[in-house]
């Protein structure tokens, strides 16, 4: 990609994350505070979200197979971005627009709309990230493209985190967050975000694949046989604990610190560290491998989560500082993990002569969605177990339980995720030469 194309691709990621992070960060708060669900309703909503997220994770693999079988005059990937932007935006707004009805009706409505939203979002998300491999000319181009997109997405996360609650409060018109305020926030995020997302279609030009669509059986056989892809899936799934802060951060701030607005400085610190790390990671990769940097950043993140648990939540300044440091470690991981999935796609082409970008990047989004599902069910279960619901008097036991699930679980998750990487064997240094030789041989034949 040239600079203009890379900027357009990054702005598309910015738009995508405006809406999706609004959903990720504030949907639980909307359900609990905006709709005033009962404790039983919270449990049902958690179960619904978890079931749909598991379905979403499985649907990622189907999306990858579908993308690999697609052939159009605009490419395999770009049409999904353009065609799905509008329906995703409409469904994002609908998530924050529950009808004025009984709790049971609202929960049914939420389940149906959420299932549709995550399914269509997946059908657009897999092709978006696969474009980093289908349009890049070399490793440096791919790494820069990923870094720009991750930076833009993280800036969107920062804006949603910092501005989201105050803006929802102002839009609600009552001096505090309410259902109307969250709905209006979702409208702004959906219209702006999905409009920008179409830039991934406008600004990129993927390499058209002249080969016939990959047979379904071959795509599935590749997925089952690719050991390195399974290593990445296992490692990424084990790291699910990192998602707990994303899905429960606002509610954590409300329970532990008594004000969901305090998630703003905590989130700003976490995201600030991520932005700096994402920008610096291409420089760091000049001195080490993607695998090694992934291991270092994951280990650092695990240790920082342990430190958070140890210092407790009594010193807000120290907590903010540790969030900042952890954000840096997470930011490095975000770039290196995506680049390693691109390496797996390249290595698959070296071994088989056929590219399976859709399946490989479906694997990346698969572990992201599955990790979010696991984080939601665990966090929601702890919230229910400690007895928290709207209007209840918060006890020290409630605070301690929620603090533990937000620190110790991510720490253990990070450390366990290092184990599969011990058998990761993609030859990073030799991969460009091997890929060029494979393509030259295929062209000659």
TrEMBL record:
<feature type="transmembrane region" description="Helical">
    <location>
        <begin position="401"/>
        <end position="424"/>
    </location>
</feature>
<feature type="transmembrane region" description="Helical">
    <location>
        <begin position="292"/>
        <end position="310"/>
    </location>
</feature>
<feature type="transmembrane region" description="Helical">
    <location>
        <begin position="316"/>
        <end position="335"/>
    </location>
</feature>
<dbReference type="GO" id="GO:0005886">
    <property type="term" value="C:plasma membrane"/>
</dbReference>
<feature type="transmembrane region" description="Helical">
    <location>
        <begin position="185"/>
        <end position="202"/>
    </location>
</feature>
<dbReference type="InterPro" id="IPR036259">
    <property type="entry name" value="MFS_trans_sf"/>
</dbReference>
<keyword id="KW-0812">Transmembrane</keyword>
<protein>
    <submittedName>
        <fullName>MFS transporter</fullName>
    </submittedName>
</protein>
<dbReference type="GO" id="GO:0008643">
    <property type="term" value="P:carbohydrate transport"/>
</dbReference>
<feature type="transmembrane region" description="Helical">
    <location>
        <begin position="263"/>
        <end position="285"/>
    </location>
</feature>
<dbReference type="Pfam" id="PF13347">
    <property type="entry name" value="MFS_2"/>
</dbReference>
<keyword id="KW-0472">Membrane</keyword>
<dbReference type="GO" id="GO:0015293">
    <property type="term" value="F:symporter activity"/>
</dbReference>
<feature type="transmembrane region" description="Helical">
    <location>
        <begin position="229"/>
        <end position="257"/>
    </location>
</feature>
<dbReference type="GO" id="GO:0006814">
    <property type="term" value="P:sodium ion transport"/>
</dbReference>
<feature type="transmembrane region" description="Helical">
    <location>
        <begin position="108"/>
        <end position="131"/>
    </location>
</feature>
<keyword id="KW-1133">Transmembrane helix</keyword>
<dbReference type="InterPro" id="IPR039672">
    <property type="entry name" value="MFS_2"/>
</dbReference>
<feature type="transmembrane region" description="Helical">
    <location>
        <begin position="79"/>
        <end position="96"/>
    </location>
</feature>
<dbReference type="InterPro" id="IPR001927">
    <property type="entry name" value="Na/Gal_symport"/>
</dbReference>
<feature type="transmembrane region" description="Helical">
    <location>
        <begin position="370"/>
        <end position="389"/>
    </location>
</feature>
<feature type="transmembrane region" description="Helical">
    <location>
        <begin position="152"/>
        <end position="173"/>
    </location>
</feature>
């Amino acid at each position: 990609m040239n600079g203009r194309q890379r900027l357009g691709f990054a702005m598309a990621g910015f738009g995508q994350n405006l809406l999706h992070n609004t959903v990720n960060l504030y949907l639980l708060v909307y359900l609990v505070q905006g709709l005033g669900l009962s404790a039983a309703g919270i449990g049902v909503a958690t179960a619904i979200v978890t079931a749909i997220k598991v379905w979403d994770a499985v649907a990622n693999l189907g999306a990858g197979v579908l993308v690999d079988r697609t052939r159009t005059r605009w490419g395999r990937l770009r049409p999904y971005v353009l065609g799905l932007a509008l329906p995703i935006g409409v469904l994002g707004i609908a998530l924050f627009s529950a009808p004025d009805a009984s709790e049971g009706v609202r929960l049914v409505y939420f389940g149906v709309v959420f299932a549709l939203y995550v399914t269509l979002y997946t059908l657009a998300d897999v092709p978006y990230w696969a474009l980093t491999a289908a349009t890049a000319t070399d490793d440096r181009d791919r790494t820069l493209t990923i870094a720009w997109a991750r930076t833009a997405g993280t800036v969107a996360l920062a804006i949603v985190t910092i501005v989201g609650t105050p803006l929802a409060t102002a839009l609600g018109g009552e001096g505090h967050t309410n259902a109307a305020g969250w709905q209006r926030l979702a409208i702004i995020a959906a219209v702006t975000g999905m409009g920008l997302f179409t830039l991934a279609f406008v600004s990129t030009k993927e390499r058209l694949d002249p080969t016939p669509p990959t047979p379904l059986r071959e795509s599935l056989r590749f997925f089952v046989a690719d050991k390195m892809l399974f290593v990445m899936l296992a490692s990424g799934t084990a790291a699910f604990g990192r998602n707990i802060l994303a899905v429960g951060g606002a509610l954590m701030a409300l329970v532990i610190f008594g004000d969901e607005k305090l998630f703003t400085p905590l989130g700003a610190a976490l995201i600030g560290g991520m932005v700096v790390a994402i920008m610096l990671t291409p420089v760091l990769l000049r001195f080490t491998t993607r695998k090694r940097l992934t291991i270092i950043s994951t280990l650092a993140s695990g240790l920082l989560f342990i430190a958070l648990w140890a210092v407790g939540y009594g010193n807000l300044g120290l907590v903010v500082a540790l969030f900042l440091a952890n954000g840096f470690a997470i930011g490095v991981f975000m770039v290196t993990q995506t680049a390693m999935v691109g390496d797996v796609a390249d290595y698959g082409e070296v071994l088989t002569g056929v590219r399976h970008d859709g399946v490989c990047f479906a694997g990346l989004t698969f572990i992201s969605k599955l990790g979010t599902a696991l984080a939601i069910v665990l966090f929601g279960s702890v919230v229910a177990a400690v007895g928290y619901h709207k209007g209840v008097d918060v006890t020290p036991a409630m605070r301690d339980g929620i603090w533990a699930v937000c620190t110790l679980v991510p720490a253990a998750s990070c450390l366990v995720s290092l184990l599969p990487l011990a058998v990761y064997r993609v030859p990073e240094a030799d991969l460009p030469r091997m890929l060029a030789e494979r393509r030259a041989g295929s062209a000659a034949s």
